[in-house]
Structures are given as C-alpha cells and as structure tokens.
Amino acid sequence: MMRAVWRKALRDIRSRRLQTLLLVAVVAAAAATLSLALNVRASAARPADRLREASNGADAWIAVLQARSDPAAALRATPGVVEVSEAVPISWTNYGIRNGDKKQQVALVGMGPELPAFDHPVVSGGRWLAAGGTDEIVIDRGAARRLGLRAGQRIDLLTPAGPQPFTIAGFAAPTGRAPAPINDPAFAFVLPETLRRLEPEAVFGSSPDHVLRYGVRLQDPGAYIAFFEAAGRRVGPFNGRTWADVRENIGEANDFDVVFLNVFSVFALLSAGLIIANAVGGQVLSQTRDIGILKAIGFTPGQVTMTLLIQNLALSLAGGVIGVAAGLMVAPFFLERTADVLGVPASAAFDPVVLAVTLAAVCLIVTLFTLLPAWRAGRVSAIAALTGGNDAREARPSRLARAAARLGLPRVAVAGVKDLSRRPLRAVMMAGAIALAVVTTTFSLGIEATFDATMSDLTVIGGPPADVAADRDTFNDAEARRILSSHPDVQSYLVAYNYGGVAANDGFDLRGYEGDLNNPRWAIREGRMPAAAGEAAASTRLADRYRLKVGDQFEFHAATAQGPVRTTVRIVGTLVFAEGASLFVTRETLPPQFEPTDYLIRTKPGTDDARFARDLIDASGGYLDPEVLDETLADIRNQFRSVLIGLNGVLFGIAGLNLLSSMLLGIRERRRDFAILKTIGFTPGQVAASVLCGSVALACAALVVGLPLGLLATSVIFDLLSSAAGIGASVGRMPGALWLAPLVPGAIILAGLGTAIPARQAAGVQVAETLRYE
Questions:
Q1: Higher pLDDT, 655 or 325
Q2: Contact yes or no for 127/172 (Cβ under 8 A)
C-alpha cells in the first residue's frame, strides 16, 4: 500500500505543475533567507581563517611591556610552547597618514626585508619592504582601502618631529589583531632601522607605548590561560591576545547582518508555512472526489494524510536544497567587507550542518502547516467525499456581503467580499502572509526612522552630543585649541582624554573631559554627567558589569606609563553610550600626566561639516584627524539599506506568491459562481473586478492587523538589539504616520499584482460550458 501512496503523491505533483512551482519557489525563498543567516554566521570568521593559514599564524601573542634579559628564551622555556616568533618592535606613538581630506592613525611596526616563515604579515598588494628601503612603508590593507592609497604612491608620514616622506611599497594584512577599520590605529610596517631613525631614544619592551611582540604556537591552543599565567612569571608585565580573540573580533563585523537575517528568516518561514497550509487546504478541496475514491478502494485515513504530507515534504526538500544553494551564493556579498580588508577571497564554505538545519527547519514548518488540513482530509468519509457533502456552506448567507451591502458598496465589491467568507480560514492565512510582510517592512522603516533621527542627534543611539570628532595625534594641544576657538563655524567643543581603566582585573574606557558635560545633554538614563573632581557617570554597559547605581562609590586604576594610579569616584549618573563600557569623569579626576587626545566639536547650524573637517586638516598641516560623525553613520546606513530592501522584497514576493497560488485555487473552485454572475448581467470586467476587490479587502485587513503588530515587533526587536549591544532598551525610534503611509498603497498594489492572473481567468469563464449540466 505504501507504494500506492508514493505513486499517488507523485501523480498529484505532476498534475498541478504551476502550483508545484509556486510552492517550491516560496519554500526556496524562505530556505534561502534562513540559509543565508546560517551561512554568514558560520562563515563570518572564514576570511580570518584564510589569513591565518596564509600567515602561518600564532596561537597567542605576548606584547612585553617591561622586558627582562631575554623574553624569547623565557617564552621558549615556558611549558606548552612549541614555537616562538622573532621579536617585533611596535611603537604606539601617534603617527598618521593623510591622503587628501582623509587621514588614518597608524602604529609603526619594525620588520626586516625577509618575512619570517612563522607568524608573518600577508602581502595583498604591491610588494614587501626591500633591503635598504629606509623610506619605504607597507600599509595595513584596510587603512589603504579607506584612504584610497596605491602602491608606489608618495605620502607623508605625520610624526612628532614633522612630516616624513615615504613611498608605499605595498599593502599587507597584519597578524595578531584585526585590521582597520575593525581596529584602530592601523599597522604600518617599516624596516627596523627606519623605526630607530624615527625614534632614536625609544627602548622597545619598556612601556605600553613601545612594546616587543612575540607570536607563540602552543601544544594545546585552548590552554592559553595556563600559558599566560606561566609567561607572566617568566617575562614580566605583558599584554596578551589569543587567535580566538582575533578571530572573534573579525567575525563580529558581520554580527548585525546576522541579526537582521535571522529576523527576516523567521518571518519568511512563517509566511511560507501559511502558504503551504493554504495550498494543502485548496488541494484537499480540489481533490475531494479523489480522496473519496482512495478511501473507497481501501486507503486508511492515515494513508490519505500520508499521501498529502509526502507531496509537500518532497516539494519542501527540493525548495530547501535550492534555497541552501542560493544562500551559499549570496553569502559572500555579506562577507566581502571583512574579506577585502584582509586581502583574501570572500567565500562561504559548504557546511553540512547548515544544510541539515535549514532542511530540518523547512520540513518542520511544512509538516506543522500540512498536518492539520491533511488529517482533516483523511477523516472525511468516502460517501461525503464522493457526493460533495461540504458544498452546503455555499448556500449560507454571507455576513461580510450583508455588511458590505449595508455600507452601500457597489455590487462588484459586495460579490468580491462575499467570496472571502466561502473559505474563511484560507482568507485569514492569505491576509496573514501580507500582514507578515507589513510587519517586516514596519521594522525596516523603524530602522530608517532611527537612522534619520540619529543623523541630527547622535545621542539617540548613544553617540556624543557633537557633530565632528577630531583626534589630536601628536599635534600641539594649545595650537589645536587656538584653531578651534578662532574658527567661525565652531559653536563649542569639549577637550577629551581617552585612556584605559581597570577594575577587578577587567579593562574599560576611561573618558575625561574639560568643559560643561551637562550642556548639551548626553543620553542620560539617570542622574547627570559629572561636574566636579571625584564625580563620574557610567555607561549602561559599565553599570551592568559592576552593578553600579547613582550614589555608589567606584574604585578603579587608571593605566599610566608610570604604573596604575588608584582612584575612587562617586557615580552621579548613568547614560547610553554606543562605544562599550566607559566611565566619564572631569579632567580634575584624571592623573595629571594625561594629555588631551581628542576634541568633540559642535558646529553652528547650517555648517558644512565636511568642509569644516577639511579646514581643520589644512590648518593643522594634516595632524588633526577629524571625523564627521553623521557621515560615518550615513555609510553604515547605506550598507544596511540594500540588505533591508532585498529582504523586504523577498517577504513581499512570498506574500504575492501566496495570493497568486490561493486565488488560482479559489478560481478553480468558483467557476460555477462566476458563470452565474455572468448570467445575471456581470461583464467579464466586473467579474475580474470582484476578484480584485476581494484581494484589496484582504490587503486592508492585513494592514489593520500588520501595522500595530509591526510597531510592537519593532519595539521588542529594537530593545533586544540595543540590549545585546550593551546600550540598554528604548533606544530606537518608531516610524511615524508619514513613514507608514506608503504601506497602504504598497499592500493594495501587491494585492493587485497577485490577483491579476486569477482575475483574468475568472473573467474568461465560459457560461455555457460551465453550466451545461445544471
């Protein structure tokens, strides 16, 4: 009997090819969205893996701060160490590279003309440093891409002693840290003798500004904690980093893409489920006589159910495989940004787990939405199925039609609305698919509204109350203040001191300021910003980490070149801040040896901030490094906009296919009704219009349900995203009426497009042929 079940399922698939294609397309679209999310997550660190393979990279890195007699020998003697790289001197002194109106901070790394076999940078353009090339430099590929540099170009390296001319030999991806713009400053490689020429008095391995870095390969890469503890006893103070940290840091560049893809994949799967349930319900109705015959020849209710379930599972597997392949092909688009700065190909690896999870999710959804209508079909008696016992509902008066008539709607509209009550469950599911598309679009519009609000006020998402941020590098502070104070476009500015703090062995950003921190207002959650020595405000992430409340005392150590400085402050406020765990204090609270690092500038209304930034670069000889904050946000917005448009297109496409598939089933069931309408005077155009009116009514119902659900879902998702980012809830902005207004014509247009073919078929029903046996 199972052989008969399989043969019947296969015959039914072949007999309704258009519906089969539509169902496969819908499942493939949903599977592609889920597969894309899983592929991007699984492959996010793949570019980093490729880089590590090309660089023969280390498992961990030790940056020695106070070198003892022979750190390399001490590391080789540390238990668990297999290999140690050569010592690499790194200067974290503020250097910069300028190209036109763009500037990038760099840390200088001294390396010889022959790249070592173990743990070396990977050249991705041009060439490596040549012997005797004391005026050559190799730039971090990410920084070179941002600045628009080319191999062979002559540039000035901005140093404390003034600009120094260099020729760009090539570009390389560093080991031991993520490249720019993921990490800042970028690495720039020069010969060791060049580094000594630029910093003749520097002693590398003596301070956080001048370190000696070693790459280490371990017998057990997972045993890095024990290694760090043993290394600390042998080599003295150091900063340590593992390959796992670097890999995670690089992979995090795709985190928000993954979140968006996950959200849309859930909506797509639900939409696909509604469509499948509709298709199965219609299939049962259109095959009622077949079901009666099957039961008459001995099929059990379970076998009837199994026949319908096998059909849809087979189609879902086909659609799932197509979707996985599509997700695999599209995934490199999302990985390209990371891969490009690393200088490796952007590709997603085929992962059997991704295939298995996607197919399992698709099959689960298909099973859930197929099982109930298939089970109901199996319970229909053979006599009822053969005699069409369910047609009694056609004689029932339609409440919707009576309501439409009372409202004075045209008879065409009344006829279209009446048809919705014929199969109310199908109508609800069709409206549900459109409503899900409305929900996802509302979420996307919420993102746009949040970006729009943030462009004029960065504090919306926890940014500083400033228009331009300028990094001082090694530029004279007094001269920088003179430039800012005398510029006609500057309304006010804060002098910033950005350093590091440590509490309970955990690091955080210590941010001190000169000036009034309470005007203009930051994104305060509770209390206020500090106004005197000994006061501090904590970002929400820092407050959560240490369970800080307004009024608490907080003790930490400020990291200085001379050693940690113990400090105690009183928390006077908490604030939303997008850049992680940070403590905000006044200048008087900081150690006196700290120097200004940045300036937060508010420009006067109407100022061209891009032109103002170029003025600062020119006035400082290229040393000030300004960033127009809303331009940075605009770049991020543009990256996400294309993704959101594509994902919304998928959801609306699924909803449109649902309408098309369901309406085609409805037209096949209601041929007799359309013939009767024509006999009482309906023209073909009026018949088509009645079908269209029914779809428009569904679209309007979907809007009524989808808009409030979309606003609720947007609020919940925004809170989850902002909480995951450590900036707390209630950060996003809901789209207003003007943002949501285009959804009304959009849903109606979707209804029209999805109904065009079925309406044409309804208009073409031949009265004589349809009613000749009546």
A1: 325
A2: no
Report CA-CA distances (Å) from 307 to 14, 15, 303, 314, 427. Answer: 14, 14, 6, 11, 25
Question: How far apart (Å, rounded) are the C-alpha atoms in residues 630 and 98?
Answer: 21
- Determine the pLDDT at residue 393: 46
| Per-residue tokens: 450 | 């949040």
List of residues 6+ apart from 533 with CB closer than 8 A: 586, 588, 589
DSSP, collapsed to helix, strand or coil, labels residue 189 as strand
Nearest residue to 326 via CA among 285, 265, 384: 265
Please answer whether residues 528 and 565 qualify as being in contact, where contact means their C-beta atoms are separated by less than 8 angstroms: no
Q: Which residue has the tokens 């549900």?
A: 432
H or E segment and range at residue 354:
helix 352-379
Strand partners, 159: 162
**What angle is formed at CA 623 by the lines to CA 617 and CA 626, rounded to 5 degrees?**
50
Helix (H) or strand (E) holding 136: strand 136-140
The first and second tokens of residue 317, run together, are 């597997």
Query: Within 624-730, where are the H helices?
Result: 629-669, 671-679, 684-724
Strands 582-586 and 122-126: unpaired
Report pLDDT digits (tens) over 393-432. Answer: 444 556 666 666 666 667 676 666 666 666 676 677 777 7
CB 624 within 8 A of CB 112: no
Question: CA 755, 668, 278 angle in degrees (round to 5)?
Answer: 70
136 bridge partner residues: 167
Placement of tokens 């870095």 in the chain: 213
3-state secondary structure of 766: coil
Interatomic CA distance for residues 266 and 502, integer angstroms: 41
- Torsion 742-744-748-754 (CA) sign: positive
Highest average pLDDT, of 56-70, 160-174, 613-627, 758-772, comes from 160-174
Q: How far apart are CA 565 and CA 590, in angstroms?
A: 9
Band (pLDDT 50/70/90 cuts) for residue 392 is very low
Separation of alpha carbons 712 and 143, rounded Å: 41
The DSSP 8-state label assigned to residue 207 in this structure reads B
Q: Taking the model in full, what pTM does it have?
A: 0.66
Residue type at 510?
L
Q: What's the CA gap between 452 and 450, in Å, rounded?
A: 5
pLDDT digits (tens, 9 = 90+) for 602-618: 999 999 998 998 899 88
What backbone phi and psi angles, to 5 degrees, belong to 110?
A: -95, 120
> What does 367-397 look like in DSSP terms, one character per residue?
HHHHHHHHHHHHHS-HHHHHHTGGGGGGGSP
Bridge partner list, 212: 64, 89
